[in-house]
Design brief:
The protein has 10 helices and no strands. The chain is mainly α. Helix 6 runs antiparallel to helix 7 and helix 8 runs antiparallel to helix 9. The radius of gyration is 20 Å and the shape is elongated. It is about 80% helix and about 0% strand.
Length: about 170
């Protein structure tokens, strides 16, 4: 077999499937250890989309937010038009929420890229709650109204109704 030939491609594919399987089995640190043994920078620059997705999940589940952020950003840069790269915006929002800033922008980006994506109602709801927490009902009110029109029975519907009621009952300047 020639270097870089079919055997090498098969090995990379097998490793990606192995990482996905290891994450599914809860072996997050094993995936992280393998990526670090290979070299994290090398993995980020040459790993397959499946490898990066598995590595990002492993890092998030293991509580390694800094690594997860690097992997998710690499995913978005290297594979921008893929569903996992669009989903990465949501997960970057979650990491930003924990780390103190930029979450609203990541959630907005996710919703604009994936308006019907798997995490759209969550991204919209989390954005609404962050705006409410940071700037009050006047900033969150329009988002609450739009949330209810899109997701009347969504997980944040009760909070959206409450924010909407606060916005309506607030004194107007």
């Amino acid at each position: 077999p020639r270097p870089g030939g079919r055997d090498r491609v098969h090995h990379a594919s097998t490793e990606a499937h192995a990482w996905t399987r290891q994450v599914a089995q809860g072996h997050f640190n094993a995936v992280l250890d393998e990526a670090e043994h290979r070299g994290l920078d090398r993995t980020l620059s040459s790993g397959s989309l499946e490898e990066l997705a598995a590595l990002a999940d492993a890092a998030r589940y293991a509580g390694r937010s800094a690594v997860a952020k690097r992997v998710l950003l690499a995913e978005r840069q290297r594979f921008p038009s893929t569903a996992p790269a669009r989903d990465a915006a949501f997960f970057l929002g979650r990491i930003a929420e924990e780390g103190g800033g930029g979450a609203v922008e990541w959630y907005e980006r996710y919703v604009s890229e994936s308006p019907r994506g798997a995490y759209a109602s969550q991204a919209f709801g989390r954005k609404m709650m962050l705006l409410y927490k940071q700037r009050g009902h006047s900033a969150a009110g329009p988002v609450a109204t739009e949330y209810l029109s899109r997701y009347p029975n969504g997980p944040y519907a009760a909070a959206a109704r409450k924010i909407g009621q606060e916005s309506q009952s607030a004194p107007r300047p």
